[in-house]
Amino acid sequence: MLRGSCACGATEYEVEDAFSYAMNCHCSKCRAATGSAYKPMGGIEREKLRVTREDTPMFAWGEPDAGDFRCGVCGSFLYSVVRDGKWVHVTLGSLVDAPSLLPDHHIFVGSKAPWDEIGDGLPQFERYVT
Ligand SMILES: [Zn+2]
Ligand SMILES: [Zn+2]
């Protein structure tokens, strides 16, 4: 089991170390949502993630079955509910522990920031590829 936490500690979660896919998303939405060049994320069935601490109700942007979930205190981006509410995309930066599956490709590289130079040798895709 992998532990995850927001920046302030008010929200914590556990997720099985069983991501089905992991990648770095360079789309403009993920860049804005993370304030970063890209969002490293891992996809897993929703029932394999459990929020274990929620001092203040989490902030959800979007619908309960299709939205981004953040700590209700500090706003750290923890995961998105996707694929008809059945899966989550966990922000790997919010994990305390290291997952076995690491991002192995980049997606939406056509939308990457002009100053962002991808320096690794991982495959790059213009579109969504899991
Ligand atoms: Zn927090
Ligand atoms: Zn994205």
Number of helices: 1
Distinct compounds present: zinc ion
The H-and-E topology, N to C, reads as EEEHEEEEEEE
Q: From the alpha carbons, calculate the radius of gyration and give it in angstroms.
A: 14 Å
Structural class: mainly beta
Summarize the structure.
The chain has 130 residues and is mainly beta. 5% of the residues lie in helices and 38% in strands.
Q: Main attributes?
A:
seven-stranded mixed β-sheet, binds zinc ion, Metal Binding Protein, Guanine Nucleotide Exchange Factor, Chain A, 130 residues, three-stranded antiparallel β-sheet, mainly beta, globular, 10 strands, 1 helix, single chain
What topology does this entry show?
Blueprint: E1 2-5, E2 11-15, E3 21-25, H1 28-34, E4 39-45, E5 49-54, E6 59-63, E7 66-70, E8 77-82, E9 87-91, E10 106-107
Parallel strand pairs: 3-10
Antiparallel strand pairs: 1-2, 2-5, 3-4, 4-9, 6-7, 7-8, 8-9
Bound molecules: zinc ion (ZN) (2 copies).
One zinc ion (ZN) is lined by residues 25, 27, 29-30, 39, 108.
